[in-house]
Amino acid sequence: MTTLELLSAREVVTRYGDCVELVPMDPNFHDISVGLYEREGISTVWTFSRRPGVDDRIRDIVDRLVKLGGMEIADAWNRLRFPCGHVHTRPLKFLTTAAIERTAERDRPEKLQIKDSKSNLTIDMTGEQDGNRYVYRISTTGEAKNPALRLRAIIAGFVRYGEMDKLDDSTITFSCGQRHDGLARLILPYSRNISAVEDAMEADALRGQMTTSTLGFAST
Known about the structure:
The protein is an alpha+beta fold. The chain folds into two domains: about 10-105 and about 200-215, no CATH class; about 115-190, no CATH class. Helix content is about 35%, strand content about 25%. The protein is built from seven helices and ten strands. It has helices at about 10-15, 55-70, 90-100, 105, 145-160, 180-185, 195-210, and strands spanning about 20-25, 35-40, 40-45, 70-75, 80, 115, 120-130, 135-140, 165, 170-175. The strands form two sheets. Strands 1-2-3-5-4 form a five-stranded antiparallel sheet. Strands 6-7-8-10-9 form a five-stranded antiparallel sheet, covered by helices on one side. Helix 2 (about 55-70) crosses helix 3 (about 90-100).
């Protein structure tokens, strides 16, 4: 099947699982709503819209999930998974929004390095294989009132938004223990400011509740 079937909201949930992320208005395609459903490690990109060209739009989103997040096609053209077999729900939410809204071109750093938003520090992220797991080490350079405290806050951001495990004061790893540079690069900007990101996420959630109907989706 290479096109979206006409399914009811209940049928979508029964077939593809729970909706883990919703973009209520796709700014790059007629403001349609697009969601990502998850069941048993498989993520499905879905929309109830049947506008002309919507299948190509969903294919474009799928391609971007592969390119930005390192996902792979599973058992159908709009169904994906991470090669490690884990879902990575929280970073997947950021990945989905970036893929649909195309924010990565503006926000995602080209390298695993970024300027801190609260100090004159530069945040560097390096990765290496450490035994049976792949670890990321966070370091900072530059001037700050308390760089050690700032580093701890940044690590906390990765734990919060990347669902990563803290190994020590400067080392983290994804829960699966595998390498995910695409997700790491995507989460890096959010790790700098937990409170601002939380406020933005609450605003997005409210917008979704106000602009969508059954199960958070609206046909267009």
